[in-house]
Amino acid sequence: MTHLALPPPQARLVVLGAGPAGCLLALLAARAGWPVALLDRKSFPRPKVCGGCLAPGAIRALHQAQAAEVLARCHATPLRRLRLRVPGGELALPLPPSLAVERTALDDQLLQMACRAGVMWCPATSARVGQPISRGRVVHWHQPQGGSGTILAEAVAVACGLHTPGAGVAPPEFRLRAAKDSLLGVGVVSSCPAPRELRQGEVLMAVGEQGYVGLTVTGCGRLNAAAALQVRSVQQHGGPAAVVAQVLECCGLYLPQLQQLPWQGTPRLTRSVEPAASQRAFLLGDALGYLEPFTGQGIAVAYQQAVALWQVLRSGQEARERERRWIACSRRMMRAQRIRTGSLALALRHAGLVRRAVGVLNLCPVVAAALAHWIEQAV
Ligand SMILES: Cc1cc2nc3c(=O)[nH]c(=O)nc-3n(C[C@H](O)[C@H](O)[C@H](O)COP(=O)(O)OP(=O)(O)OC[C@H]3O[C@@H](n4cnc5c(N)ncnc54)[C@H](O)[C@@H]3O)c2cc1C
Fold it and tell me: For a substitution probing ligand 1, which of 286, 304, 338 has the most ligand atoms within 8 Å of its CB?
């Protein structure tokens, strides 16, 4: 994959973060002939904490962006069933057409497509948004070898995921609100054998007092484990592996092999940032807000926001009007998702309630299917 050793001094669009949100936006803009610089603090392929489930909304957005060929290239395979495990019970729900993916491969394939479309790719380059200037915005960058500099951008898209703006990526005009009772995310992908209980095409989700753990088998036959856990429990146990083991064990699942693996973590998950745009800087994806991973909608939201933001940027309207449009549009997009994922996240804080719900839903499969459909409609 071709990349620039140093970022260019100017670009029409500078995108910070090459995850699903930033990379798809950069691809769309480059295809339209815009000079686009895409900066990420990591080199790719890079690991990313993720359950590896691609919801129908994500697949639709990739088709809409004519980028769906990445799915075959990263060996995505169909997911048909969610098995929700609680202490003493299990509920099996049909999934709407979803895919299991290896996140590292998915993001890398999309990046390769963006580079082929002409995106100026700058890996291992950390960036932050600087001062507004007339008809643009400054972006400051630095590289671990000691290089640093600035880019003059007509517009800046901030897609730095959960590290925004706590890490000083976005200036103080963007206010972060993080939930106090937020869980944190952990994950690992491994070649260690999947448990007997888990078959390809299924998501096995264990819900306990300290959080929940999701397991899938990827198209390459590897085990993907991801979890959202209480911060207090992780601190008490000196790391996530022991807490993951406890959640799994209380649901009757024993995977000692997971204990030895190099788990990766995220900051606290539940957050929102306002405003969504200001003075030619636009936030999208997790950088704009995130709830919890239970419904596996994060990539779908990121892709859909990339497509929607591109519609706003390309409109040719005056800068203020584009900012107003993105604030209104992103708010609308997130409202429906917040209601559904938010109410589910609240219910998941009460393991006893989830246990009773599993019992009831097992008796009423029609209601269970309607619930699964309601969640999917979030994006
Ligand atoms: C435990 C867990 C499980 C999940 N499971 C699923 C799932 O199964 N399905 C699903 O759809 N979603 C899932 N998600 C959510 C999903 O991973 C995110 O919503 C998605 O990655 C958001 O994409 P993004 O592009 O906004 O950010 P990211 O994918 O986080 O990308 C941000 C990029 O910005 C880069 N960056 C950060 N700071 C800087 C900087 N200063 N300068 C330059 N670059 C920077 C990072 O290196 C990174 O590459 C899960 C999340 C968690 C925590």
Answer: 286
